[in-house]
């Protein structure tokens, strides 16, 4: 029965039951963490063969020695693998170090002098569109460059394109947009074909030097046997003549080792040449030994699907557990909605308005750390205070089960308080 249909007396009875359950959790002195989307140890173990895989062979087919300096855009074999992952031509791809975030940050740092010059001329500020809920570290990059962020709703088809087109049409200081187009962090949504095609046209509406930051962090991270299909944005953009507006990113952080993978950046050849020039004073090259290890381990990408299905086998029970627990406890109560992702690392949970932070606080009081409410929004401010990102990959299945038991009680308790006071 819906909690929203309860009388005040029924709600009070429910509240005291929930308080009893809550104090039992407190006594149990739990220490559980559902905060960051990290792979679990068993997932990391899937890639242990990276260690020692080169067996002393450091030469590439073109004769280059990966132990030595050089090759800032990456080894050809890894550029080809990145091109296959991102559906690009190898000449459009560079391979970086262990973090695609570093490449994103550097791309913004590379663009910011141009954007700021324009902002100064017009006495305004550089702005970015941020589909929400979204990934907090994208927002942190914007904050670090003092880029103003504009929230736009992420729908199940992708960001609200009507709103985006309208904003770009009106404001020439909007210089970019963050996207996680496949199995989005945190909702799990994949942009549909019409949305992708509309993205390819944005460069025609936006002012000069507009960049779509297409962060395909979960491109290969399926949780079903029939992976979602993401339409080819570079293909569409090249047809539309807007490929300079596109920056694509991915990494092996959640394919091999989160702390020791390789990353990819894809863009037009013209942009890549300019970015190479920007990077050159910083370094002579990224870690090519690790690039070669990855090429060997993933057989140039040809065994990527098999490897990812092993991740899926480890993650499936956890994502199923989240759905089961939420459905059992909250399915008929009318107090929460949540996503059922077909890939990626997260489940996005929406509470009644105004209580997400209370739920997180209650859970913390009972020893369960949740991602801070608001983290999925720019400036850490969720205007409706409703969204909570759940990250089920890292804890063991039994810890996850305990943490979810606590979460649902905290959510029901905060909802009961809310309903009694409204
Ligand atoms: C959307 C998204 N992009 C990027 C990253 C981080 O990628 P990397 O480890 O390559 O820096 C994450 C990690 O959680 C993510 O969720």
Q: Looking across the biggest beta sheet, what order are the strands in? A: 2-9-8-7-6-3-4-5
Ends: how far apart? 19 Å
Residue stretches low in confidence (pLDDT < 50, at least 5 long) are none
Total number of strands: 13
The radius of gyration over CA amounts to 23 Å
The shape is: globular
Instruction: Give a quick account of the main beta sheet: strands, pairing sense, barrel closure.
Output: 8 strands, mixed
Q: How big a fraction of the residues is strand?
A: 5-15%
Number of domains: 2
Distinct ligands, ions and cofactors found in the model? pyridoxal-5'-phosphate
Identify the quaternary structure here.
single chain
**CATH homologous superfamily heading of the largest domain:** Type I PLP-dependent aspartate aminotransferase-like (Major domain)
Task: Identify the CATH architecture of the largest domain.
Answer: 3-Layer(aba) Sandwich
How large is the count of helical segments? Answer: 13
CATH class of the largest domain: Alpha Beta
Describe the secondary structure blueprint for this structure.
Elements lengths: L7 H20 L4 E3 L6 H5 L30 H11 L6 E4 L3 H22 L5 E6 L3 H9 L3 E8 L2 E2 L1 H10 L3 E6 L13 H13 L5 E5 L17 H8 L5 E6 L11 E5 L1 H11 L8 H10 L6 H27 L6 E2 L8 E4 L5 H10 L2 E3 L16 E4 L6 H24 L2
Helix pairs in contact: 1-13, 4-5, 6-7, 7-8, 11-13, 12-13
This protein binds pyridoxal-5'-phosphate (PLP).
Pyridoxal-5'-phosphate binds next to helix 4.
């Amino acid at each position: 029965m819906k909690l929203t249909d309860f009388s005040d007396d029924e709600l009070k009875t429910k509240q005291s039951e929930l308080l009893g359950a809550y104090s039992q959790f407190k006594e149990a002195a739990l220490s559980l963490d559902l905060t960051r989307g990290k792979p679990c140890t068993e997932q990391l173990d899937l890639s242990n063969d990276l260690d020692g895989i080169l067996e002393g062979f450091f030469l590439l087919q073109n004769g280059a020695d990966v132990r030595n300096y050089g090759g800032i855009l990456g080894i050809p074999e890894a550029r080809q693998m990145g091109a296959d992952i991102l559906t690009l031509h190898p000449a459009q791809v560079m391979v970086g170090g262990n973090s695609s975030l570093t490449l994103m940050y550097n791309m913004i740092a590379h663009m910011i002098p141009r954007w700021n010059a324009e902002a100064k001329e017009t006495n305004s500020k550089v702005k970015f569109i941020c589909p929400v809920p979204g990934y907090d570290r994208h927002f942190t990059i914007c904050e670090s460059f003092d880029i103003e962020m504009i929230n736009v709703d992420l729908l199940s088809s992708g960001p609200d394109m009507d709103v985006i087109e309208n904003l770009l049409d009106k404001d020439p200081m909007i210089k970019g947009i963050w996207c996680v187009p496949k199995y989005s962090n945190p909702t799990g949504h994949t942009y549909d074909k019409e949305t992708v095609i509309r993205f390819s046209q944005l460069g025609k509406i936006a002012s000069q030097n507009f960049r779509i930051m297409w962060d395909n962090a979960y491109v290969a991270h399926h949780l079903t046997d029939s992976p979602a299909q993401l339409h080819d944005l570079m293909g569409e953009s090249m047809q539309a003549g807007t490929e300079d507006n596109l920056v694509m990113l991915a990494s092996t952080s959640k394919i091999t080792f989160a702390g020791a993978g390789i990353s990819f950046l894809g863009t037009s050849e013209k942009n890549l040449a300019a970015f190479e020039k920007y990077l050159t004073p910083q370094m002579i090259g990224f870690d090519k030994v690790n690039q070669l290890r990855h090429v060997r381990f993933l057989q140039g990408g040809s065994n990527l699907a098999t490897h990812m299905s092993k991740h899926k086998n480890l993650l499936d029970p956890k994502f199923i557990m989240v759905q089961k627990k939420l459905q059992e406890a909250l399915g008929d109560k009318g107090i929460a909605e949540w996503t059922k992702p077909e890939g990626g690392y997260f489940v996005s949970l929406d509470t009644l308005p105004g209580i997400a932070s209370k739920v997180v606080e209650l859970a913390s009081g009972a020893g369960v750390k949740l991602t801070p409410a608001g983290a999925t929004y720019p400036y850490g401010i969720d205007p409706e205070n409703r969204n909570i990102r759940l990250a089920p990959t890292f804890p063991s299945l039994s810890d996850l089960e305990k943490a979810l038991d606590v979460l649902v009680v905290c959510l029901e308790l905060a909802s009961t308080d809310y309903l009694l006071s409204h």
